[in-house]
Amino acid sequence: MRVIPNLLSLARLIVAPYLFWLLWRHSFHAALVVMFLAGLTDAFDGFLARRLNVSSRIGEVLDPIADKVLLTAAFAALWLAGAIPGWLAAIVLGRDAIILVAASIALLFSSARGKSEAPRRFPPSLWGKLSTIAQMGFVVMVTASLDLLVPLGTWITAILTVWSFLHYTFLYFRGLYFRGRYTEA
Q1: DSSP letter assigned to residue 66
Q2: What is the C-alpha separation between 106 and 100, in angstroms, rounded?
């Protein structure tokens, strides 16, 4: 029972290449089914971890990684398929790449100083969560062919992604993530 939430997160990681392939091939109906099932696993892994009181450090890391890998696969595939503008894919993928590099640098400098404490936690901010929700919603809009909503979704996704990046940049340079004082959730 203890590993079920982590297995659900792992299932989302495993399905990411398939989702990429479906979106790249414009198999949007099948991609919607895969995204719906991935969404269910996302909801259930957190629910089960809390309900069964089996939260783990690996689950804490694996869950957001699975979400980001799925979104990265979706945005990359939709861009390569010509279904979304390249500038939007660059904003979404670039933001995540920069945040990943910055977090890696922070962890390296923390390790280089000889700190023996547990690995740092990087909780998502409210803006990061809203950005992720907008990105997920946008992918659904595109794949469900909700053409009237896509232009508005494009701009909402772009604005929230840039704003969350600026917010994380502010937190990074203030050092709040790396001193363990940032607790917004």
Answers
A1: H
A2: 10
